[in-house]
Amino acid sequence: MQPITFSEFTLPNGLHCIVHENHTVPIVAIDLWYHVGSKNERPDRTGLAHLFEHMMFQGSRHVGKTEHFAYIQRAGGTLNASTNEDRTNYFETLPSNQLELALWLESDRMMSLDISAENFENQRQVVKEERQMRYDNAPYGTVYEHLHQRAYFQHPYRWTTIGSMAHLDAVTLEEAQEFFKTYYVPNNATLVLSGDLTVEEAEKAVMLYFGDIPSGKEITRPTDFDLPLTTEVRDTIYDHVELAGLFMAYRICDVKNPDADVLGIIDHILAGGRSSRLYQNLVHSKQIAQSVSALAAPREHPGLFFINAIAAQGVSLSEIEHEIDTELQRLIAGQLSEEELQKAKNSYETRLLKSFSTAMGIADNLAYFHTFFGNAAEINRELERATKVSLEDVQRVAKQYFAGKGRVILHWLPKTKVITS
């Protein structure tokens, strides 16, 4: 793969801008990252970062409510936003001759978002309804909430980005306004422009639209401290589901730790497609599970490794758990061939390359590496790190994170149907 080239500059107000030129097609991707996520929230006010993902489309000084969507769509573009534990981003892809439209829209809401009582109350209700629909009333919808609550003791990763219903009810307009004033400022943002533009065009336009926005105060970051997870935490959850599920979580490293790349390979070895170990064993051969997945999720601070399985009808979760533990023990014992490792690396590398195949994919990766690694050039080292993962690395990392007693295991069971006369 050819190295991804880019240029960088920082405005006097602290806004960091990264520009990747690619004139293959006349489109440009705009990806604005704010270094704020659910871990920046107070323990009694969870859900604010995600609430602002919605609030940011409620209008600003020169843009009416929901008009952000209309402007971009009329220009032939697409847009969206997302929130996780560590960051919130807002992104658009549109014809390159509409670059200034997107910059105007983003700068206007950074400078003058309309956080009125009416907008705040409307979006509070929207988020509460989203929580009920996607989490509380969805099959297995609160799995990750339960896993995080048990895998962390003091760290803010113990709550999820959607927030609790009680906290959404309790947060005040003034608290929301202060949250925005603190975190949605130029010196806490990274703006990436990727596609059919020049660095000179970018510098001129970014200065024009963002240069007059004042910096915010210096931000205090949460520490990564938490008590170690040294024992096995088990629980049983009864829910409105048809099939039982097994959900496991292990504490792992942060994204900057070299082990993160190895863990990404391990999740492909375990459950990366139909030829993976767990799929072949649990779903194909023994047919004791309907589905199985594994995911390494390192974060800015130490994250989690998840292994999930939905049981076939009538199968004991203990049987599935035993089979998963057996596969983990095989990795710990070094029972992995060079051929199987290479297959997993190929799958992992394909996923990486796919993320570099679009203007927005490149923009998102540049923002990611600048925000969490402090160096956007890491984008050109990620593939190399993956290709260097060895059999010894896999065994060492498996021992490091899976051999101890510390993990969370949830047995998710169907509620007993009560028949009344």
Percent in strands: 15-25%
In whole angstroms, the N-to-C terminal distance is: 68 Å
Element order: H for helix, E for strand: EEEHHEEHHHHHEHEEHHEEHHHHHE
CATH architecture of the largest domain: 2-Layer Sandwich
Report the total helices. 15
Low-confidence segments, given as residue ranges, are none
CATH class of the largest domain: Alpha Beta
The CATH superfamily of the largest domain is identified as: Metalloenzyme, LuxS/M16 peptidase-like
Count of DSSP strands = 11
| Sheet with most strands | 6 strands, mixed
What name does the CATH topology of the largest domain carry? Cytochrome Bc1 Complex, Chain A, domain 1
Biggest sheet, spatial arrangement of strands: 1-2-6-3-5-4
Q: What is the approximate shape?
A: globular
Rg, rounded, reads 23 Å
Average pLDDT, all residues:
97
Number of domains: 2
Going by helix content, strand content and strand pairing, the class is alpha+beta
Descriptive report:
The chain is an alpha+beta fold and 421 residues long. Helices cover 42% and strands 19% of the residues. The chain has helices at residues 48-55, 67-74, 99-112, 117-136, 143-151, 165-170, 173-183, 199-210, 259-271, 277-285, 317-332, 338-355, 359-373, 382-387, 391-402; strands at residues 7-10, 16-21, 27-34, 78-83, 88-95, 189-195, 232-239, 245-251, 289-297, 304-311, 407-414. A six-stranded mixed β-sheet has the order 1-2-6-3-5-4, sandwiched between helices. It has a five-stranded mixed β-sheet with strand order 7-11-8-10-9, sandwiched between helices. Helix 1 (48-55) crosses helix 4, helix 9 packs across helix 12 and helix 10 (277-285) runs antiparallel to helix 11. It starts with 6 loop residues before the first strand and ends in a 7-residue tail after the last strand. 43% of the residues are buried.
